[in-house]
Structures are given as structure tokens and as C-alpha cells.
């Protein structure tokens, strides 16, 4: 592959925001300055690329952002970038600023955009896994996943106080579109009675049986974690079905929702984002294009974007086994 001269790099965040995105931007920009590059912020993701919302970044722009949740570059889901015309506009804007390469921080949709852009216009791009869902291959953890799990656990701990005080059964729905990583992690970490994830279908009868056994065993409280988009339905739907079998139970549903996406990034997410931000710039300078930088066993690994976005990262069977043992 031909090594391109890279002097100006654009950075954008796209899709759902995740805690640690700011830390990743800051690391990429600082690394760019270290290697004497000009760094540009593209605001509102691909939407900003199409609308030419692009500004040169200075070190003051990235002061005190590492510890902040969200993304100061803002984020969006762009329908126009999915069209060839939209991508052509984006390319023209990029070139009008003389930007030679892109760093895209986001989930699978955002990285798909970077891949297409490279294929169509040859713009070198490195993706960083920025999503709370942890559903990208080529990295042990995505930026924001650890913080989202911590946030979920903190909220569930509080819900448990009421569950115990009132002998209530709670169904708590966590995020993770089509992926059960937050559910399994937060479920084990909060001693859930059961964890329902999209990857595994569980019959309501089995769940009811399990809850009956736990009631007989006089468990202090019962909290069932349900991943959104689960095969068995969302928390409200499952709670309704269970209620038919256990009418004597006082059942409540809590949907944690977007609170899981906000807040200051955890120590792990700050480290992950910082390492990957530097890796993105170094990767581009070494001619690693159309790849996602991830961390596997604490080491930076570059995975072709096409490979990283394949929907085959699975919840660890052993996590599932442990959750089962601990909730019996
Ligand atoms: O991909 C991150 C995520 O928070 C998913 O867990 C969730 O399904 C989705 O984004 C929600 O998206 P939006 O904020 O656009 O409703």
C-alpha cells in the first residue's frame, strides 16, 4: 500500500456518544501536535463533514475535556452520508481544507462510513471503537463500555434498596442495542437474579421457575436485568408476562436508558481512549489505513474495519455460566 504524506488530520465523533470520546479526541489531537501535524475538528460527525462544519484545533480546545462525558465535537447520525452524493460533498469539503486523513470515533455504523469513504475516495482513515455497547470485534472493550457498566451498577444498587425494603421484583432494562455485554457485566456486578440478553432466548416459564425457587429460598430481593432489544422482549413486556404467572408479586420496571451514556469516563475508559487516540495518529503515519485501533490484552491492535464491524463478537460463555451459578 502506498504511504501517503499526512500533514492535516480531521477528527470526528459519530453515532451515539460514549464516555471517553473526549479523552480519545484529546489524545489524538495531542499526538498530532507531538508529530507536528495540523489537527482539525469536524463537528456533528459526518453531518458536519457534509455541511463543512470543520475548524482547526488548538491546544486550548482540548484543555479539560479528558474528564468530561459526551463529545465536545458533538455527534449525529447522518442519513445523507449514506448516499454517494452526501459522501462526495463531504470529500470536497475535506479537500477544501487540505485534510489528508480522518480519525473516526464511533460504533459500527460510523466505522462503516469511514470504510466506504476510504474505498471511494482513498481518504486514509483509522477508526476508534467509541460506543457503550462493546459490540465491535478487534478490541477487548470499546470506549465508554466500562463507564456505562459502572453507571448501570450504581443505579441497580440503588434500586435494590427499594426491592429489598418492599420485597419487590424489579425488571431493569439496560442499553446495548442487539448486544448483551452491558447486561451480563452489570448483571454479574449487581447480583442479578437473572440476565436476559438478545443473544440467548429464555422461556418465560424457566424464568418464572427460577424466581419461584429463589422466593422459596427466601432471597432478600430479586432483580432481573433485561438487555434492550432482547429476543424475549423488553423489560416491560417480560414483566407483564411474568406477572401472569406470579400475580402475588409486586413487580416494577425501570428503564435506565440514556443515563448510561453520560457522565465522566472511568479510569479504564480514560486509559483506553488515551492509548487509542495516540494509536490512531501513529497508525495513520505508519500507513495503516481503513483499520480500527483496539486494545487486546493491553496491546494496541489494528483490525481491518470490515472485520471489526462484522457482527460476531460474542458474550463470553463463561460469563454466562458464572452468572448462572451465582444466581442459583
Ligand atoms: O449504540 C449506543 C446506544 O446507546 C444503544 O445502546 C442504543 O440502542 C442506542 O444507542 C440508542 O440510540 P439513540 O440515542 O439514538 O436513541
UniProtKB/TrEMBL annotation:
<feature type="binding site">
    <location>
        <position position="16"/>
    </location>
    <ligand>
        <name>ATP</name>
    </ligand>
</feature>
<keyword id="KW-0418">Kinase</keyword>
<keyword id="KW-0808">Transferase</keyword>
<keyword id="KW-0963">Cytoplasm</keyword>
<dbReference type="GO" id="GO:0046872">
    <property type="term" value="F:metal ion binding"/>
</dbReference>
<comment type="function">
    <text>Catalyzes the phosphorylation of D-fructose 6-phosphate to fructose 1,6-bisphosphate by ATP, the first committing step of glycolysis.</text>
</comment>
<feature type="domain" description="Phosphofructokinase">
    <location>
        <begin position="8"/>
        <end position="283"/>
    </location>
</feature>
<feature type="binding site">
    <location>
        <position position="252"/>
    </location>
    <ligand>
        <name>substrate</name>
    </ligand>
</feature>
<comment type="similarity">
    <text>Belongs to the phosphofructokinase type A (PFKA) family. ATP-dependent PFK group I subfamily. Prokaryotic clade 'B1' sub-subfamily.</text>
</comment>
<dbReference type="GO" id="GO:0006002">
    <property type="term" value="P:fructose 6-phosphate metabolic process"/>
</dbReference>
<dbReference type="GO" id="GO:0003872">
    <property type="term" value="F:6-phosphofructokinase activity"/>
</dbReference>
<feature type="binding site" description="in other chain">
    <location>
        <begin position="175"/>
        <end position="177"/>
    </location>
    <ligand>
        <name>substrate</name>
    </ligand>
</feature>
<dbReference type="GO" id="GO:0005945">
    <property type="term" value="C:6-phosphofructokinase complex"/>
</dbReference>
<feature type="binding site">
    <location>
        <begin position="77"/>
        <end position="78"/>
    </location>
    <ligand>
        <name>ATP</name>
    </ligand>
</feature>
<feature type="binding site" description="in other chain">
    <location>
        <begin position="131"/>
        <end position="133"/>
    </location>
    <ligand>
        <name>substrate</name>
    </ligand>
</feature>
<keyword id="KW-0324">Glycolysis</keyword>
<feature type="binding site" description="in other chain">
    <location>
        <position position="228"/>
    </location>
    <ligand>
        <name>substrate</name>
    </ligand>
</feature>
<feature type="binding site">
    <location>
        <begin position="107"/>
        <end position="110"/>
    </location>
    <ligand>
        <name>ATP</name>
    </ligand>
</feature>
<feature type="binding site" description="in other chain">
    <location>
        <begin position="219"/>
        <end position="221"/>
    </location>
    <ligand>
        <name>ADP</name>
    </ligand>
</feature>
<dbReference type="InterPro" id="IPR012828">
    <property type="entry name" value="PFKA_ATP_prok"/>
</dbReference>
<dbReference type="InterPro" id="IPR012003">
    <property type="entry name" value="ATP_PFK_prok-type"/>
</dbReference>
<dbReference type="Pfam" id="PF00365">
    <property type="entry name" value="PFK"/>
</dbReference>
<comment type="subunit">
    <text>Homotetramer.</text>
</comment>
<feature type="binding site">
    <location>
        <position position="108"/>
    </location>
    <ligand>
        <name>Mg(2+)</name>
    </ligand>
</feature>
<keyword id="KW-0067">ATP-binding</keyword>
<dbReference type="GO" id="GO:0048029">
    <property type="term" value="F:monosaccharide binding"/>
</dbReference>
<feature type="active site" description="Proton acceptor">
    <location>
        <position position="133"/>
    </location>
</feature>
<dbReference type="GO" id="GO:0061621">
    <property type="term" value="P:canonical glycolysis"/>
</dbReference>
<feature type="binding site" description="in other chain">
    <location>
        <position position="160"/>
    </location>
    <ligand>
        <name>ADP</name>
    </ligand>
</feature>
<dbReference type="InterPro" id="IPR000023">
    <property type="entry name" value="Phosphofructokinase_dom"/>
</dbReference>
<dbReference type="InterPro" id="IPR035966">
    <property type="entry name" value="PKF_sf"/>
</dbReference>
<dbReference type="GO" id="GO:0005524">
    <property type="term" value="F:ATP binding"/>
</dbReference>
<dbReference type="GO" id="GO:0030388">
    <property type="term" value="P:fructose 1,6-bisphosphate metabolic process"/>
</dbReference>
<dbReference type="GO" id="GO:0070095">
    <property type="term" value="F:fructose-6-phosphate binding"/>
</dbReference>
<dbReference type="InterPro" id="IPR015912">
    <property type="entry name" value="Phosphofructokinase_CS"/>
</dbReference>
<dbReference type="InterPro" id="IPR022953">
    <property type="entry name" value="ATP_PFK"/>
</dbReference>
<keyword id="KW-0547">Nucleotide-binding</keyword>
<comment type="pathway">
    <text>Carbohydrate degradation; glycolysis; D-glyceraldehyde 3-phosphate and glycerone phosphate from D-glucose: step 3/4.</text>
</comment>
<protein>
    <recommendedName>
        <fullName>ATP-dependent 6-phosphofructokinase</fullName>
        <ecNumber>2.7.1.11</ecNumber>
    </recommendedName>
</protein>
<feature type="binding site" description="in other chain">
    <location>
        <begin position="258"/>
        <end position="261"/>
    </location>
    <ligand>
        <name>substrate</name>
    </ligand>
</feature>
<keyword id="KW-0460">Magnesium</keyword>
<keyword id="KW-0479">Metal-binding</keyword>
Amino acid at each position: 500500500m502506498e504511504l501517503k504524506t499526512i500533514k492535516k488530520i480531521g477528527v470526528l465523533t459519530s453515532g451515539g456518544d460514549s464516555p471517553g470520546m473526549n479523552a480519545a479526541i484529546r489524545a489524538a489531537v495531542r499526538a498530532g501536535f507531538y508529530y507536528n501535524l495540523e489537527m482539525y475538528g469536524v463537528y456533528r460527525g459526518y453531518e458536519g463533514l457534509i455541511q463543512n462544519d470543520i475548524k482547526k484545533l488548538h491546544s486550548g480546545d482540548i484543555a479539560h475535556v479528558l474528564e468530561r462525558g459526551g463529545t465536545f465535537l458533538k455527534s449525529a447520525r447522518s442519513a445523507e452520508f449514506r448516499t454517494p452524493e452526501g459522501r462526495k460533498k463531504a470529500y470536497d469539503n475535506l479537500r477544501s481544507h487540505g485534510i489528508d486523513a480522518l480519525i473516526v470515533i464511533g460504533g459500527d455504523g460510523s466505522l462503516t462510513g469511514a470504510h466506504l469513504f476510504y474505498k471511494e475516495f482513498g481518504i486514509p482513515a483509522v477508526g476508534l471503537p467509541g460506543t457503550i455497547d462493546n459490540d465491535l470485534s478487534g478490541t477487548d472493550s470499546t470506549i465508554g463500555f466500562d463507564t456505562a457498566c459502572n453507571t448501570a451498577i450504581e443505579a441497580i444498587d440503588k434500586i435494590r434498596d427499594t426491592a429489598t425494603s418492599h420485597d419487590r421484583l424489579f425488571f431493569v432494562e439496560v442499553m446495548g442495542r442487539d448486544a448483551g455485554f452491558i447486561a451480563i457485566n452489570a448483571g454479574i456486578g449487581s447480583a442479578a437474579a437473572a440476565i436476559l440478553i438478545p443473544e440467548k432466548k429464555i422461556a418465560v416459564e424457566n424464568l418464572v421457575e427460577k424466581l419461584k425457587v429463589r422466593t422459596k429460598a427466601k432471597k432478600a430481593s430479586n432483580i432481573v436485568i433485561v438487555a434492550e432489544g432482547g429476543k424475549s422482549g423488553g423489560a416491560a413486556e417480560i414483566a407483564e408476562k411474568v406477572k401472569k404467572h406470579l400475580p402475588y408479586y409486586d413487580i416494577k420496571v425501570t428503564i435506565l436508558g440514556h443515563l448510561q451514556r453520560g457522565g465522566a469516563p472511568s479510569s479504564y475508559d480514560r486509559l483506553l481512549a488515551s492509548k487509542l487516540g495516540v494509536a490512531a495518529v501513529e497508525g495513520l503515519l505508519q500507513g495503516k489505513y481503513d483499520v480500527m485501533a483496539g486494545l487486546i490484552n493491553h496491546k494496541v491492535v489494528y483490525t481491518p474495519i470490515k472485520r471489526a464491524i462484522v457482527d460476531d463478537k460474542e458474550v463470553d460463555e463463561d460469563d454466562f455460566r458464572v452468572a448462572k451459578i451465582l444466581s442459583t
